[in-house]
Write a structure and sequence with these properties.
Distance between the termini: 38 Å
CATH superfamily of the largest domain: Bira Bifunctional Protein, Domain 2
Bound molecules: biotin
Oligomer: single chain
Strand order of the largest sheet: 1-2-3-7-6-5-4
Shape: globular
Number of domains: 2
Order of helices and strands: EHEEHEEEEHHHEEEEE
CATH class of the largest domain: Alpha Beta
Low-confidence stretches: none
Number of strands: 12
Number of helices: 5
Radius of gyration: 17 Å
Strand content: 35-45%
């Protein structure tokens, strides 16, 4: 796997697209980003001290219907990384990694699909190490806040790259899910209601139970809070 190290860039998820035609798995890392991108068109604060990287991976004969595996692998890799430094994470469906109820990392996935197959995926990960959280302290947390002697961002980056290069499966993902069989607040369009989270299906949908009736719902249809 090729690895490219940058001091500064706008967004590693954008940079990495120049390698799409080459067919070689590649990681692009940056010490800071000036236009970090989050999900739902949001920006992602990316000051020095954090880990910002994008992993471009190519696939053969990978059905698009199994693309949830890209997300589970990214979340598991982040969990294994912070665990290596003594921190206990949990995954909030579908791909937020939380510690003490706050987000320690953000994951942005861009999939390249054709003819019902996943050809390549770009997994962008921003992990808070000692970077300032810039007013997001109520919802975000960093390794620096959790550890008396936080590691340098480069060590965390190298650990994350090593975990991304390994394999993981749905059972590894489920190991970090703590909210099943508990009440959750579900927002579906204009409506917010309480339900019990029952199961995460192999296609990534969450099975919720409301008034005794179970429904599988995708992350595009609902958001959840605990
Ligand atoms: C989110 O939580 O909204 C997802 C944030 C993803 C941020 C990472 S940092 C590396 C890569 N480059 C970007 O511009 N975004 C992703």
């Amino acid at each position: 796997m090729r690895t490219v190290f940058l001091k500064e860039t706008s967004s590693t998820n954008d940079d990495i697209k120049q390698y799409l035609s080459e067919g070689e798995n590649t990681v692009v890392c940056a010490e800071r980003q000036t236009k970090g991108r989050g999900t739902k068109g949001r920006s992602f604060s990316s000051e020095r001290g954090g880990v910002y990287l994008s992993f471009l991976r190519f696939y053969e004969n990978f059905p698009a219907s199994e693309a949830f595996a890209v997300m589970t692998h990214a979340a598991v890799s982040v969990c294994r990384t912070v665990e290596e430094f003594g921190i206990s994470p949990e995954i909030k469906w579908c791909n937020d990694v939380l510690v003490k109820g706050k987000k320690i990392a953000g994951i942005l996935i861009e999939n390249i699909l054709s003819g019902g197959f996943l050809r390549a995926s770009i997994v962008g990960i921003g992990l808070n190490v000692t970077n300032p959280l810039n007013g997001l302290e109520d919802i975000a947390i960093s390794m620096g806040e959790l550890l008396p002697l936080p590691p340098p961002a480069e060590r965390v980056r190298d650990s994350l790259i090593a975990h991304l290069a390994q394999e993981s499966g749905l059972s590894d993902y489920l190991h970090y899910i703590r909210f099943l069989n508990r009440p959750i607040r579900v927002t579906e369009g204009e409506h917010t209601f309480l339900a019990i989270a029952r199961e995460i299906l192999p296609d990534g949908r969450l099975l919720i139970e409301q008034n005794g009736i179970c429904r599988p719902l995708s992350a595009a249809e609902i958001s959840i809070t605990f």
